[in-house]
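Supplementary Methods. Inverse-folding protocol.

Structures were first reduced to a discrete structure-token string of length 90. This string, shown here, constituted the complete conditioning input.
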């Protein structure tokens, strides 16, 4: 028999574990669960992808930052100049 007038005043208020509400339950394969949850929690902590990148850059060592700089420079070198027009190599 349902309780139509439950006494809930003595129950502690629960704080949501997510910043962005409402949430929705989904079904995913177990093999992906940990990776998906980690991604979702990181996205929930930060407002934008830009904030995520800045946060991750702050955690890099000097050597890792140098390697990243070299990688970016090598990507920039893929731009070929053709008669004052720049075209990306795809």
């Amino acid at each position: 028999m349902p309780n139509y007038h439950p006494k809930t005043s003595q129950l502690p208020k629960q704080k949501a574990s997510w910043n962005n509400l409402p949430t929705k339950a989904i079904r995913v394969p177990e093999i992906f669960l940990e990776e998906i949850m980690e991604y979702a929690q990181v996205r929930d902590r930060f407002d934008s992808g830009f904030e995520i990148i800045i946060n991750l850059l702050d955690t890099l060592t000097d050597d890792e930052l140098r390697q990243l700089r070299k990688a970016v420079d090598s990507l920039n070198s893929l731009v070929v100049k053709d008669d004052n027009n720049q075209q990306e190599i795809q």
